[in-house]
UniProtKB/TrEMBL annotation:
Pumilio repeat coordinates: 221-256, 257-292, 293-328, 329-364, 365-401, 402-437, 438-473, 477-516
UniProt keyword Cytoplasm present: yes
Record-annotated PUM-HD domain positions: 201-542
The species this protein was found in: Helobdella robusta
Gene name for this UniProt entry: 20194817
Name used for this protein in its record: PUM-HD domain-containing protein
Amino acid sequence: MSDTASVMSLPPGNGQHGYQLLTPAYYDQSGQLLVSGGRGLGPLVRLVSPGPLMVNTATPAPNQTNSSGLFTPAQPSSTVFNPRPQTWFNSIPNTTDPFQPNNGLLSDNRHEITTTTTAAADDKSAVAGGYQLGANRGASLDQQNVYHMPYIQSVGNNLGLNVSDAKPKVTSTPFSNMLLNSNLMGSGNQTLLKSVEGGSGRSQLLEDFRANRLPSLQLMDLTNYIVEFSKDQHGSRFIQQKLEHATEAEKFLVFSEINNCAYNLMTDVFGNYVIQKFFEHGAPDNRQTLALKVKGHVLTLALHMYGCRVIQKALESIPPDMQVEIVKELDGHIEKCVKDQNGNHVVQKCIETINPVHLDFITDAFKGPVTIHLAMHPYGCRVIQRILEHCTTEQIKPILDELLNETEILVHDQYGNYVIQHVLERGTAEEKSKIINLLKGKISTMSTHKFASNVVEKCVTHSSSEDRAAIIEEVCAISDSPQTALYLMMKDQYANYVVQKMIDIAEPPQRKLLLQRIRPHVPLLKRYSYGKHILSKLEKFYHKCSAEIGPIGVVPSSANTHNSHSIK
């Protein structure tokens, strides 16, 4: 290498792969730029990756040594990219944005920031005789030295990017301010800025509360924030808890803020609970004022997942005259509500809380053939049971007549059987006997049915002594068939429960008759899983009532199969 040469290429095979190398350059005491030979100045330093070195051939300024052609006038370069050196802002070119939806990231623009690793990177320094060192630094940097940075560090952190560790060492304040104050963000990114500044649109007060930074927060601290807290999962729970022991001033604060947007809160997933809690603990006059907010929206709320809960709570908390005024809006829509998964609960609550003299518009909707249809409906059967519990005899009779006329159909239905069971539990003795008389002669068959067997059990439990004796005698009747009705019932998955219920409830004469009929089948019952239930019941019964059983004997104990009292 000559003393004046500053750039040289090493021959291939020396491990450097033909990289262009730069000899050390320095300024002397007079300000002259000198390029020295390689003697005593350490090893050669690689400046750029392989490729042609772009050297400006312009004449250097007077009194400047530029024999190597390394330093060029400050003019745009046509190599890697063409920055605009008028301002530092223009040195940040717009590029294809990997943060756009097509590229799978976040924002509308990305800026390429070059590292400033030496003092020569400063545009205001390293100027010698009209030459600028690094004025066009983008033209001499390898692509590996270009860093890509999202708009705002916090946005990157929200994405799980460790921006603080990966960003280049540049002054962040002017860059951040430029982005936030310029039009680069675009109108479409206002939501992004709001998310960064306000935490997904929440107020700072709510954010602090959710972060457990306000351990002593009280209801009075939520002035102008009650609605926002009510719509937040944690804020709603906080208000509910505070309302249980709130002062009159605190209750009034809550009321004054939720009153103007009550309907919106009634249909909110979290807000509806605040409304419900206020109906429980609010001042009476405020509760009535709040209840008036549902007027004109009763049907809509009754069919709404959250609104139906508010209507039910309101009916429990307001005076009778206001109850009637509100539910009148459901007149003409009862069948629609009854068949709805939400509305049926509102109709049930009306029947439970309102004086039945005001409920003719509900009971009238169940008259006629529609009664059986609704009795076999998953929600309609519930409403009919509430009618049978709370309405007057005059209101019930037309409905009950329709049910009794179709008893056999209803007992085999998966929902209708509940209505017949309810009549057996709560009906008059005459109504119960009528149902049992309709089922007589079919006890064995119905006992083996999944749904009808439940009705037969209720017949055994709630019938009179005479009707119960008739049922047991029908089951124990001797048949010409080798397999009696009782035997078929004992080994059936549903009917065995009917037999167990008979053993539990039967009076002594009927119980002894049952045991006499069961005894011949003991060996066979051991073979069936459901028959073993009967044997277990008999064994337990013997230990409690052995004197009553007398000579009949008992079932063998599972612990001792040679028990002297065992049935042989």
